[in-house]
């Protein structure tokens, strides 16, 4: 059964010549109990898509069913079954961590007693008990993000939307938050995760959907996406720039002319279908040709390689067209 089914979602900001189509016809399926990563650069349409799926924006056209309810006809029913953690911590700096979570509980219509109990449980789960009665002005960025995520779990939603949850966090805090997300998955939650961090999607998502300029351009598992760009490659750094030509000839001979050359870095790249055996053979061929090397490595495709091939740019590159048209509508 699917937790999310979207068909032909479209959202345009502005009108006339200044109109910007932030989302141009998105079809999306998220099976229950899975993590789907919505991957793309800023301005690609990720946040706008999430806002439509969580009833914060009405689509111009298309249809979406979330947790069994239509997002346009049954917005209240959708909201009662989901949790949402946005790009920026939606917390009150003048309240303590405990007070923030209690307030979230009351907004979800929990009794004061139940809200207090749930707040205590979440503070412990997110390692915030020691800071529970401090105002948020004293919290670090990572602590605020953990508290914001805790707030989205106040009523134990089975469907959770995480919109770039680790933006602005240091590496240690990011890894801590990854662990929290994995715990939610282990408990059976379904998660739609938007991110511009390739390693985040690779580490957390069962399936990845790549979006750019408001349309989905690829989807599949991380391994399936990586397989699209042709498998493994061997990278060689030649010691002497004068030997680059000779080394290129050697590698072209073994690869049928597929060697790529970068004179600036003295790097040669050649595809291989035999893994470590191919690496050993390249070392032997270069040694027999008398070519000295500084480094050699077997490289597997990364999601960044996939993204560059699909879009011609890196996932972290800025594309602010949609943001200019509508605030942070990325």
TrEMBL record:
Keyword field: Antibiotic resistance, ATP-binding, Cell membrane, Membrane, Nucleotide-binding, Translocase, Transport
Organism superkingdom: Bacteria
Biological processes per GO annotation: daunorubicin transport; doxorubicin transport; response to antibiotic
Membrane topology: Peripheral membrane protein
Cellular localisation: Cell membrane
GO molecular function annotations of the record: ATP binding; ATP hydrolysis activity
Gene3D superfamilies, A to Z: P-loop containing nucleotide triphosphate hydrolases
Family statement: Belongs to the ABC transporter superfamily. Drug exporter-1 (DrugE1) (TC 3.A.1.105) family.
Name of the featured protein: ABC-2 type transport system ATP-binding protein
Organism: Jiangella alkaliphila
């Amino acid at each position: 059964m699917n937790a999310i089914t979207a068909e032909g979602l479209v959202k345009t900001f502005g009108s006339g010549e200044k109109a910007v189509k932030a989302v141009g016809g998105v079809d999306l399926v998220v099976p229950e109990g899975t993590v789907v990563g919505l991957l793309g650069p800023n301005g690609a349409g990720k946040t706008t898509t999430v806002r439509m799926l969580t009833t914060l924006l009405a689509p111009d056209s298309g249809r979406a069913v979330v947790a069994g309810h239509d997002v346009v006809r049954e917005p209240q029913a959708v909201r009662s079954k989901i949790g949402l953690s946005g790009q920026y911590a939606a917390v009150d700096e003048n309240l303590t961590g405990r007070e923030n979570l209690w307030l979230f509980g009351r907004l979800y219509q929990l009794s004061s007693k139940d809200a207090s109990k749930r707040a205590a449980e979440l503070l412990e789960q997110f390692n915030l008990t020691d800071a529970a009665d401090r105002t948020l002005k004293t919290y670090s960025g990572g602590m605020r993000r953990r508290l914001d995520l805790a707030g989205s779990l106040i009523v134990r939603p089975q469907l959770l939307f995480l919109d770039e949850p680790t933006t602005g966090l240091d590496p240690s805090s990011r890894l801590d938050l990854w662990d929290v997300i994995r715990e939610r998955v282990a408990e059976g939650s379904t998660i739609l995760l938007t991110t511009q961090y390739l390693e985040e999607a690779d580490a957390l998502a069962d399936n990845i959907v790549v979006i750019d300029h408001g349309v989905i351009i690829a989807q599949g598992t991380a391994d399936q996406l990586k397989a699209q760009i042709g498998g493994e490659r061997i990278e060689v750094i030649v010691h002497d720039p004068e030997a680059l030509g000779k080394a290129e000839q050697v590698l072209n001979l073994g690869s049928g002319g597929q060697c790529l050359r970068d004179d600036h870095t003295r790097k040669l790249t050649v595809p291989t279908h035999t893994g470590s055996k191919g690496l050993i053979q390249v070392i032997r061929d270069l040694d027999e040709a008398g070519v000295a090397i500084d480094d050699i490595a077997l490289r597997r495709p990364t999601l960044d390689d996939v993204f560059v091939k699909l879009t011609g740019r890196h996932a972290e590159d800025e594309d602010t067209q949609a943001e200019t048209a509508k605030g942070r509508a990325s």
